[in-house]
Queue: 3 jobs
Job 1
Amino acid sequence: MASIKCIVVTPEATALEQEADFIALPLFDGELGVDVGHSPLIGRLGLGELRLKTGGNISRYYIDGGFVQIADDVVSILTEAAVPAAELNVAEEERRLAEAQEQAADSPERFEQRKRAVNQARARLRIAFRA
Amino acid sequence: MANARALDKRRKAVRNIRKITRTMELIATARFKKAMDRASAASAYTRQITQLVSDLANSGLEVTHPLLEYREEVKQAKLLTLTANRGLCGGYNGSVLRLARKHWTKLTAEVESVGLEVSGKRGITGFRHTGIEIENSFTHFDDQPTFAEVEAIASRYLDDYKHGRLDRLDVAYTMFVSSSKQVAVVETLLPLGALAIDSGPAADAESNESAGESMYEFLPSAESILEEVVPASFKVKLFKCFLDAAVSEQISRMVAMKSATENADDMISSLSSRYNRARQSQITGEIMEIIGGVEALES
């Protein structure tokens, strides 16, 4: 059976290079499912969960924004961080969320910064819960 | 003739130093390999982003972004200098500092307000000696800079640039050309100028092709993606500077320690031959004395 190749690169390393039957990506406005033979696409990613279905197994990763490029059954994901869901820990992510919410938001830039940090922590927490 | 014992002592000292330099060489070699692996792992991202940019360009999109445009009036500039935390790496720190200082004088002549940021203890002390005030300094970058650390700095620059607190960012660092060549360079990272990150000839050729239809569908739109790509490519460019600097540091330490070890070897052999000669002449002298004493007794 044909499969899709999924490559996840971060600035530090190639985080993942693997074949999968089905891939779900966190796009900027919601999830996108990619099956074999998807049309070519370049898209912006949001914060969220990347799921790879191979056989009966599902592996999950947290993806920290970035881009996706789909062509010829190859899905390349460029992101600043990709963390396997198994490495996320609910208690730690809750602490991270609390920390993010503590941040001062006394100027528009700081507010943006805080918003991003909070969203990041929330996305991580969500995945940690599910794992 | 120097006395044999003093020579022996010196030889022992040189031997000890040789042991140290030899160990440092081995450590630097191991670290260099690690740093090199990291740098090559990071190049995958650079390649992908270059590919993305050329695909965007192929879609007929006008590549414009505030970060790419030169500002007419440069009021505030910043010079970031990347040096090592430790010495004993030959001319590595010296050549970056020399270049940075030269660039600093040029920059201060052109721009009214210039800030200096330095990474690495060697650079900090170096600039302190010349009396140039350092605005910001980092010492937490070692031979393996992480992206998260660099990203924090990069986003600060991006923020400053966006809000008009910064018009130009130059980075002085040691570029890694090959394992036998590293050059200290000054690069202007903001404004970014051209987007392609050391794009190979292939990527250039691609983007030069007539902007026909692209097979890609863009979500949400090519413009919006470009908006995100530009800061990302700036961050990765800055990260690459840090990686290059780290690799170059290890390699120049390795080379410096290798030649130090070789010099110690030379010194040991020359001291050894001097020591042997001194010892021999001491023995000859003693024999002469004994013979002289015997002859005196006989007569």
Job 2
Amino acid sequence: MGKLFIRVIRRDLLLAYRRRADVLTTLFFFVIVVSLFPLGVGPEMKTLRLIAPGVVWVAALLASMLSLQRLFAADYQDGTLEQMLLAPHPLGVIVLGKIVAHWMVSGLPLALMAPLLGLQFDLPPEALGILFIALLLGTPILSLIGAVGAALTLGLRGGGVLLSLLVLPLYIPALIFGAGAVEAYIAGVSPEGHLSLLAALLIFSGLATPWITALALRIAME
Amino acid sequence: MAQEALLSLSLAPVYRPDSMLEVVHLSCLRGERTLFTDLSFTLSPGELLQVAGANGSGKTSLLRMLCGLSAPLAGEIRWNNAAARGEDFNRDLLYIGHHSAVKEELTPLENLLIASTFASAPLTESQALDALNRIGLGGREHLPTKALSQGQKRRVGLARLLVSNAPLWILDEPLTALDVLAVELIQARLAEHLAQQGMIVLTTHQALQVPGITPRQIALS
């Protein structure tokens, strides 16, 4: 079963590599949205430091929405999803593999990019480190929760808009604790509490959402 | 295409002589239309069932139901005296649907290797190359599938037939878009599968000529 998990990840990474443009769109969207704020707000260092965590996190949420719809759509259209449902393995394992691959191409690059973008907001080096850790813990949550929404809206007309309405409210806890960690550090408080809660959220969604997603996919395929 | 050449490719079959597919009083509703009601049949090893009927008569719905992809309105489907669902049933099943689960971005070789992973009978690269060669894709194993013709894409999906050891095959229009040679190859493979005590349920609008077999037919109206 572990082998299958690895093979699913490798397959999705290979597909993402063959469709590089899609991956780059998400990353560029994130970079551009974050970079627009310092230009729009002006060179007011204090204000920029204050809004930085929130801006980076909201941009990450929106960027993740861009790529979510593609998580199952292609497999749904060409019949691969049927084969996954009929595989003699727990569907949750295949789904988790797809989510992990999705995070590696759409979440991880955002986390890696964030410290660089944070420089535009005059964040101190330690705050940049915490921003990176918070995103490293938080972006997988976005992929995990988003997968449920992507499965529920599979094959629906106007699914994209519905997906945003469904998933964005569920992102709120990750947003609060993720942005809160950096804000706490800037305010001189330890960010540990925020990061622990973020990690707890990650574990919980990692355990629950693959199975919920699998169930939603079965319903979508009926 | 020689029969022995085909045989050498198939993996050790997992057939049981007492395997049986039973369909009991099955009914199907699509939207507000009842497609069929009270459909019953059994399928034993070595038998081929051809589902006939006009477009929209519910052939694909029936096949998807047999696979367990959708739930019947009433009735039940049993495989070896248990409900035809779950991992054990899936291990015994090969389903090739209307969409052949072929990724345009991947090469035929990658497609076949990945399909075999999902079917939990992973192939080695040389086995996969051999199968592609036999189905007439020799020399195109490493081209992106989107560069192939419609019929060749179908062949990529159907290559799974050459390497499957599942006893129950459910095939939705397997002969569409294939040329005469490929149709002959597929029919020879079907005959071989039946000779090995496999079972096949399929739909086709083409005349089916499986050597040595008179297909049973059910008609949906």
Job 3
Amino acid sequence: MTGWRWFWRLASFVVGVGFIYGWQMIADAKLISPVFLPGPDRAWAALLRGFHSGILEPKLVGTVQRMIIGWLLASLLGIALGTMIGVSPRARKIFGPTLEFLRPLPSSAIIPLAIALFGLSEGMVLGVIGFGALWPMLLSTVHGFGAVEPRLYEVSRALGMSKLSVIWKIALPSSMPDILAGMRLGLTVSLILAVVGEMLTGRDGLGNWILLAARSFRAPDLYAGVILLGLLGYVSAQALAWVESRLLRWRAVAR
Amino acid sequence: MKGARWQGLVFPLGLLLLGEAAFAWSHIQSDSIAAPSAALLAGYDALTDGSMLQATGDTMFAAIAGLSIGGGVGLLLGLVLGTAPVLDRLMEFTIEAVRPIPSVALIPVALLVYGFGYRMEIAVVTFSSTWPVLIMTRSAIAGIEPRLIEVARALRFNFAQRVWKIVLPAALPRIFVGFRLAAGVALIVAVTCEISANPIGLGYGMMMAEQSLHPDLMLAFLVWIGVVGWCWNWTMITAQKRLFGPAALVEPAR
Amino acid sequence: MPQAFAPEQTTTPSAPGGAAPLIAFHDVCLTIAGNEILRDISFEISRGEFVCVVGPSGCGKTTTLRLISGLMHPSSGQVTFEGRPVTGPRQDVAIMFQDYGRALLPWRTAAGNVSLALESLGVPRSERADRIQDLLVKVGLKGQDKRFPNQLSGGMQQRLQIARCLAQNPSVLLMDEPFGALDAMTRQALQDEVLSIVAATGATVFFVTHDLEEAVYLGDRVIGLLPHPGRVAKTVSVDLPRPRDQLSSRETPQFLHLRRELFDFIKEAEA
């Protein structure tokens, strides 16, 4: 079985390489103007040049830092607030409708407000990421708390557990699948808002770099940045998926 | 549940009153923030002189156009990959490599290719709304009761008949879930495009209000974007309920 | 000889010790949202007694158990424990639920699930590991400590619930159709397991079941309830000698007679 799995993995990799080759062919034949579409060779060269010259590394680090710090901030706040709202039916009634109204609001829409209040500062970018990535986690935590098996609450009552240990030992672990799904979504949102934030504030990072590259028609640099951002999205999602599979081991195991 | 509705209003109304009261007592003159009443007035003016509706139209046009193209591409790819497992496996790496690219990273690319305007925004929306439809379509088809496919075989349907008469109807409820998710993403990405680069629509209007030191208008735009987003979302959910019944609202974890 | 008592007769025959009852129902009524669930329930349970409750579905068997546990409260009348009204769950009263799939924490291992009860009792961390091992061995789950509930069979999950109950060192075990969802072989093994545990700890047991043979095999006394609304209709004392045996006890004339008596009662109730 695993042999076949590897075979398909390899085959799909070969297909992916084929696509890149096709991209190279199109670029070489100049079917699309090289101003818009440089070949993968030039994008790759730009990527290497960026790292060798030491320009790209601080930008990558800046974006990663913003994304992670904002995401952690949002996770902490989102889970804490979600817990507070989730444990109390009363709080759910009072805050629920407001949350439902705010959910479809594009989180980037608060950027102008944040700029007005905090200027083009680092704190403003982190604040926007924190605010935007907060929602998936908040909502999924509230949802997870609402979906705890009622029998487990009875078990906790029969055992005479305190309110705090019911939250810590029953409600939070039971909501963990929902919370982790929220954190996964939050991570995607964090990366997006980090990039948008950098574009708007001009703070040093990949978002700003690719926007400047586009404005000055440095297409290879632009594509190098996009590839790097894609890689960042991929690696962060994989890392979280790994953590998730560890934490939710109890779900995967079969008899 | 009249009581519950009423309780839900306590928090936002209280917040608004608090904001209003703070402005009334402190007499703040600010270029960055305005009282709720001022925002309300600015919003009323912008709505009546048509500028806000014009911006809404621009944003919705880009969002809907991108959603249509992206949704179509996603549906087509999803159908193909869902019905042809070999192709699905062969494309796995390519999709895994392209999908994690944050949609906003394509804003500069679209800017380079199309310049300012609708086309650039539509391109970015198209990219980002393709994925939810593609993923849901693929998994919806994979989740079809195998017995139904056997029925189709027994009836000697050809490929087109099979897709049209069995696969699509059976998978449609979940495909629509993907479409609904994509619709939400489309609006968000459209507004984000406008805020960060493209000089049209609601996002740009809000950005302009901020830069020209009109916090009242900026807040009005913010609230309006919230209202538009909520209505858009409501439309999609209602459509889904109407078309497939409330059971279809159950979403699988993404 | 087996004896049948008329309805509403609340004397406790052959109560070991003969002292004041441990648990007593005094004219308990329960009405939920206009539905009368229980009417004028009165009976007593002595310390160390094994009482089984049978009856057709909808007769409020489980509800009486929940009233004793303090998870529910009567609309009128009183449920007392050691002479005082029950106000809420007690640490020395353990509940075993039928739906093992939902009553165990799926994210904790077998050891972790037992640990939950010890944690709530405030047992220090250093003592927990040894006690968990002892309890798991006692219920026949040796070496299963690192497995998750969904890796265990139904019978093993129910054993795990027994271990969690025993971790509370309970003086009373409330068992709500604990073996209803298990296959016959597993069920018999667990019945004997429970009997030997009870014999060793001297715990009082309130056992809800829909299996008449199980009730007779396990209990000192069987209470029959009738539905709509739930009320006590029959009390039968079981004077089969202990320790009991799956083969010989079930073949004795008394056993067959008692089974017949309860069977007739249920048939009459459902007619």
